[in-house]
Amino acid sequence: TAFLEGTRDFCLEVNDMKKKLVRLPAARERGPFVLLTALHGFCMALADSVPGVSGGTIAFILGFYDRFLNTLHDLFGRDAAARRLALFYLLKLGAGWVVGMGACAGAVQAL
């Protein structure tokens, strides 16, 4: 078995002259990446507060839409370790979202 040409989430596995795409487990974030995930949630909340703009659009523009969808997939998957990592990722994203929505609501109330 050999792994070739990997991306962050997938790699191409060659085994007995057969090729297949294998999904890699997500790594646990540490340090500044935790803040980046919370910032992504914050940006999603700001987008959600504007009529006609979706948080998913912001996720796509900022480049974490695929990871967000894969995390949702892992949350309902069978692998307990992947489910745990997915839950932690969504909690960090959600914390940023709550702060962003609160900031936006405070700004609108102050007007």
Helix content: 55-70%
> Could you name the ranges where pLDDT drops below 50 across 5 or more consecutive residues?
1-7
User: Biggest β-sheet, characterized?
Assistant: 3 strands, antiparallel
> What would you report as the Rg, rounded to the nearest angstrom?
17 Å
- Which percent range describes the beta-strand content? 5-15%
State the distance separating the first and last CA atoms: 62 Å
Textual characterization of the structure:
By secondary structure, this protein is α+β, with helices and mostly antiparallel strands. 60% of the residues lie in helices and 14% in strands. It has 4 helices and 3 strands. The chain has helices at 32-48, 55-62, 65-75, 80-110; strands at residues 2-4, 10-15, 18-23. It has a 3-stranded antiparallel β-sheet with strand order 1-2-3, with no helix packed on it. It is elongated, with a radius of gyration of 17 Å. The model is unreliable at 1-7 (pLDDT under 50).
Short characterization:
Helices cover 60% and strands 14% of the residues. The protein is built from 4 helices and 3 strands, in the order E-E-E-H-H-H-H.
